[in-house]
User: What shape does this take?
Amino acid sequence: MSTPSPIRIAAVLSTEHRGRLMSQAREVNFREGARIFDEGTRADSFWIVRSGTVTLEIPVAGRRPAPIESLGPGELVGWSWLFPPYVWQLGAEAMTPVRAYEFDGSTVRMLMDADPAFGSAIGHWVGRVLATRLQQTRTRLIDLYAPRAAAAG
Assistant: This one.
């Protein structure tokens, strides 16, 4: 039995704040294999997965991008929309057909600025997601490079 993710929207945001955010949602679909975004490109939207799987990945010189984490229903795809310079720090690909809610980053930032309680709730949620992704990235990079470093030593 799997444990529900502590960073899924339903586990973090109150009903009121979740409703306020979801009032801005637009339903979108991604086909299997679709690039959702690439590292270094403009981050002006974000998504919450409804169904399917999205893989976050980091480019690795001379190799295919390394998968960092797989995201499923209720999970946030993308946090770079919240922090200047609004550029993606990772890439994302639909590993299966994906249905998602899409949000305009600048609109949500304006709502956050207009309502400090809502802004704080969204900021704390994204911060928790960011901390989790940082740990996942760190672990994945150790997996990728630790065996080579040990063999070279």
